[in-house]
Design goal:
alpha/beta; N-(1-d-carboxylethyl)-l-norvaline Dehydrogenase, domain 2; six-stranded parallel β-sheet; globular
Length: about 300
C-alpha cells in the first residue's frame, strides 16, 4: 500500500457510502474536512477528528476533494452550484468523484474543472456501506495518470484495491457495466431462489449451495442474510438501480450494443418501484418475484453468514 502524503482532504457527501468511506480516511490519520447537505448526519465524524463545513466552497483550500453523491445533478450542484466547491478564487489541486454518474455529466464537470486548473479523477466504487466497513470496497479509476498516482494512496485506504483503466471517462463505462451485472445477477438470484423454494427447498439451503459452488460470489454471500431473513434495510434502493440500468441502456443504444437481458431486468426493477418499494433495499426484487409466482415468503429462522 502506497505511503500517504501530507495532503489536506476534503469530502463531500456523508450518506450510506460516503460516511464510512470518509471515516476510513480519518482513521488512517488523514486531515479531513467534510460537507454534507444534512450537517447533523456527519456530526459523528467530527467526534473522531474531522472538521465540518457549511458549504462545499469552504473546501476549496483542500488539496484533494472527494465527492460521493447520488446523481449527476447533485455532483454538478456541489461543484458549480451556489457556494459550490469550484466557485471560489481558490481551488483544490484535484477532484476525485466516487459517485455513479453519467459519462456526459462527468465529462462536462471534468472540462469545467480543467478550465480552472483542477484535474479530475473518476473513481466509482463497488460495494455498500457494510462492505466499506469490512475493508472490501473496490474502486475503478480513470483520468490523468499523474492524478491517479497522487490519489492512489488515499483510494487504497478506502478498501481492498483500485484499478486504473486509463484516461477520461473509462471508469464510468466500467462502473455502468458492473451495475448492469449487479441488476441482472440480483434478478436471476431472486428467480432461482423462488423457483427452488416453490419446489420445496428452503432459501438458506439453495443459497448455501450456490455460495459454495463456482457460481457463488462475494455478492451472493453477503446478500444471503437478506434473502433468508427478508431484512430489506436499504443499502441501495430500486430507484438508484433503475438509474444505473437506464445509463447502461442509453450507452448500449449509443454504441449499438443490444442489451435484452438488461432491458428485461429494468422492467422488473420498475415493477418493484411501481409496487411502492421506495426506501427499501433493491433485493426486494425477491419479494416481487415471489408475489408474481404465487409464493408467500416468510423469514427463515436460520443463522447464515454474510462472508464479511
Amino acid at each position: 500500500m502506497s505511503e500517504l502524503k501530507d495532503y489536506k482532504i476534503g469530502w463531500i457527501g456523508a450518506g450510506r457510502m460516503g460516511f464510512p468511506m470518509a471515516k476510513r480516511l480519518i482513521e488512517a490519520g488523514c486531515d479531513v474536512a467534510i460537507y454534507n447537505r444534512t450537517k447533523s448526519k456527519a456530526e459523528p465524524l467530527r467526534e473522531i477528528g474531522a472538521t465540518l463545513v457549511d458549504v462545499p466552497a469552504e473546501l476549496s483550500d483542500r488539496d484533494v476533494v472527494f465527492t460521493m453523491v447520488s446523481t449527476s445533478d447533485d455532483l454538478l450542484s456541489v461543484t458549480f452550484g451556489d457556494h459550490g466547491l469550484l466557485t471560489n478564487d481558490t481551488t483544490p489541486k484535484m477532484l476525485v468523484d466516487c459517485s455513479s454518474v453519467s459519462e456526459e455529466a462527468s465529462a462536462n464537470i471534468r472540462k469545467k474543472a480543467k478550465d480552472l486548473g483542477v484535474e479530475m479523477l473518476a473513481a466509482p466504487v463497488s460495494g455498500n456501506g457494510k462492505v466499506v466497513k469490512a475493508g472490501k470496497l473496490t474502486i475503478v479509476a480513470s483520468g490523468p495518470k499523474e492524478s491517479f498516482d497522487m490519489a492512489e494512496p488515499y483510494l487504497d485506504r478506502l478498501g481492498r484495491g483500485v484499478t486504473y483503466v486509463g484516461e477520461g471517462e473509462l471508469a464510468r463505462m466500467v462502473k455502468i457495466c458492473h451495475n448492469l451485472l449487479l441488476g441482472v445477477y440480483s434478478q436471476c438470484l431472486a428467480e432461482i431462489t423462488v423457483l427452488a423454494e416453490k419446489g420445496g427447498v428452503p432459501r438458506h439451503a439453495t443459497l448455501d449451495f450456490i455460495n459454495n459452488s463456482v457460481m457463488g460470489s462475494m455478492f451472493s454471500q453477503y446478500k444471503t442474510p437478506a434473502f433468508v431473513t427478508l431484512d430489506m434495510t436499504p443499502t441501495f434502493t430500486p430507484a438508484l438501480l433503475r438509474k444505473d440500468l437506464d445509463l447502461g441502456l442509453k450507452a448500449g443504444e449509443s454504441l449499438g450494443v443490444d442489451l435484452p437481458v438488461t432491458a428485461t431486468t429494468r422492467e422488473m426493477v420498475q415493477r418493484t418501484i411501481d409496487a411502492g418499494h421506495d426506501n427499501t433495499d433493491f433485493l426486494v426484487l425477491l419479494e416481487e418475484q415471489a408475489k408474481a409466482s404465487g409464493l408467500e415468503l416468510s423469514p427463515e429462522d436460520t443463522e447464515v453468514s454474510d462472508g464479511l
